[in-house]
Amino acid sequence: MTGVRAQYEAFPYPERDPKDEAKRLIGGSPSHPVEIDHFLFGGQRDWSQPFRALVAGGGTGDGLIQLAQVLTSAGKPHDIHYIDLSEASRKIAEARAKARGLEVTFHTGSLLDAADLGTFDYIDCCGVLHHLPEPAEGFRALRAALAPGGGLGFMVYAPYGRSGVYPLQEAFGALFEGLEPKARVASARKVLAKLPAGHPFKRNPHLKDHENGDAGFYDLLLHGQDVAMDVQTLLGLMDETGWELVSFTQPALYDPAPLCELPEGMGARARMALAERLHGTIKSHVGYAVARGEGRAPASAAEGDPVPHLRLGQRDQVTKLLANSRPLPINASGIEMPIRLPPKAARLISAVDGRRRLSEVFAEARMDRDEALPLWQRMEGAFTGIGALHYSEGLR
Ligand SMILES: C[S@@+](CC[C@H](N)C(=O)[O-])C[C@H]1O[C@@H](n2cnc3c(N)ncnc32)[C@H](O)[C@@H]1O
After folding, report:
1. Where does the chain show beta strands of DSSP type E?
2. What is the per-residue pLDDT across 97-137, written as a single tens digit (0 to 9) for each?
3. Helix (H) or strand (E) run with residue 387 in it
4. Which of 139, 275, 292, 341 has CA 20 to 30 A from 11's CA?
5. If you ran DSSP here, which 8-state letter would residue 357 be given?
6. Which of 13, 117, 130 to mutate to test the pocket of ligand 1 (most atoms within 8 A of CB)?
7. Average pLDDT in the 189-200 region?
8. What are the boundaries of the region Disordered (predicted)?
9. Distance between CA 104 and CA 93 in Å, rounded?
């Protein structure tokens, strides 16, 4: 058994109890169908058509359950497959799906063989590719399993926001070689407690996984195969393996312009790389990609009359702040990016219900198009920047 498989047999990740499915649905990025539609299908996917998806390295099932539950609740046809090396993880994901009455086809095996399962309109690969001995092989294998016109939702670890992690992984790797996974956790916890308060890991306020039980601790500090990639490395891997980035889910994190004056003519990749270094807190890159050369772009209000969906935690508080001319206190990946909008924006926000088209939102807010559109475009820039606004037609 490989070290990675042994780890996830001992510690299925993330730690989940299928009984909790009765209480809550865990949401996130990538892989909410509205988000998939926004980034991969111009917000116009016809969800009455079959949707074949693969959750590659699905672990204990967070992305899988979200995807299957939202499509099931909306009554949309789907054929969702899950694959993971770890049987223990699969058992938990299976029990979660069963608890909700969701239909999923489960496979135990490597995503390197994904194409053996056919081709898919959508592939989720969250938190996995950086754990492969050769991440390029993983990207290539998933590309081979992509149906024409389909796309990938991914998350890979990023180095700077994980500062302090890698020297500890190396030190614990050297110290605990040969020990069973459970014994490693117990020993590493003792050592960690004795490290100086100024250790970069202890000074990094953005790392929390080690506080989430043994599986989280192992995943963060004891992983034997964990290679974070900066944005240039990630995009280089995509170039090499036939992918192209559509967008990160929070593109504002990759914009250095609010921090400094940029040299003239700086290209898009160099800007993203600069932002990643200047911010220093990005722990993971989350985004969507398609086959190289397609030039697909996320949905926007510039295209027709789309249906907006807002993901803004406490909507009442947001509209109250705006109506009182106060900025929205946004913090994404540890970066403060307050959003300032005129009070009228509150009316537009209140009118978005995930069913109305933009023209209907304007009418509901009692604003004519000439007045509403420039304000909406400003809101679109701000909210899509932090992953809080998506367009999706067919999940109304
Ligand atoms: C950090 S967990 C992420 C789980 C899940 N995708 C999530 O985001 O919650 C990584 C998972 O990838 C699986 N994995 C690692 N290498 C794999 C491979 N080559 N093929 C399939 N699964 C793999 C592990 O067994 C583990 O369940």
Report:
1. 52-56, 79-84, 105-108, 120-126, 146-157, 243-248, 284-291, 308-310, 331-332, 335-336, 389-391
2. 999 999 999 999 999 999 999 999 999 999 999 999 999 99
3. none
4. 139
5. -
6. 13
7. 96
8. 1-21
9. 10
Question: Residue 15 in contact with residue 43, Cβ under 8 Å?
Answer: no
Rounded Cα–Cα distance for residues 231 and 215 (Å): 27
Residue 113: alpha-carbon gap to chain centroid? 23
C-alpha to C-alpha distances, 390 to 36, 40, 89, 308, 309, nearest whole angstrom: 9, 11, 31, 6, 5
Residue with tokens 């780890």: 7
Q: Are 63 and 55 in contact (CB under 8 A)?
A: yes
d(CA 254, CA 231): 9
Tell me the per-residue pLDDT of 198-247, one tens digit each, with 9 for 90 and over: 999 999 999 998 998 999 999 999 998 999 999 999 999 999 999 999 99
| pLDDT tens, position by position, 273-298 | 999 999 999 999 999 999 999 999 99
CA of 66 to the centre of ligand 1 (A): 16
Cα of 173 vs centre of ligand 1, distance in Å, is 20
Give the tokens for residue 242: 């036939």
pLDDT of 2 reads 73
Question: Which residue ranges form the domains of the chain, and what is each CATH number?
Answer: 3-160+226-291 (3.40.50.150), 308-391 (no CATH)
Ligand 1 center–CA 128 separation, angstroms: 5
Amino acid type, 56: A
Q: Which of 394, 389, 396, 395 is nearest to 310 (CA)?
A: 389
* Contact by Cβ (8 Å): 287, 245: yes
Helix (H) and strand (E) counts in the chain: 15, 11
Q: Pinpoint the alpha helices (H) of the chain.
A: 3-10, 33-40, 62-73, 87-100, 135-144, 165-175, 181-194, 200-203, 213-221, 231-241, 268-279, 315-323, 345-351, 358-364, 369-385
**pLDDT range class, residue 316, cuts 50, 70, 90:** confident
Does 394 score more than 80 pLDDT? no
* Atom number, ligand 1, closest to the C-alpha of residue 86: 25
Q: Whose CA is nearest to atom 19 of ligand 1?
A: 110
With a 6 Å cutoff on the Cβ, whether 61 touches ligand 1 is: no
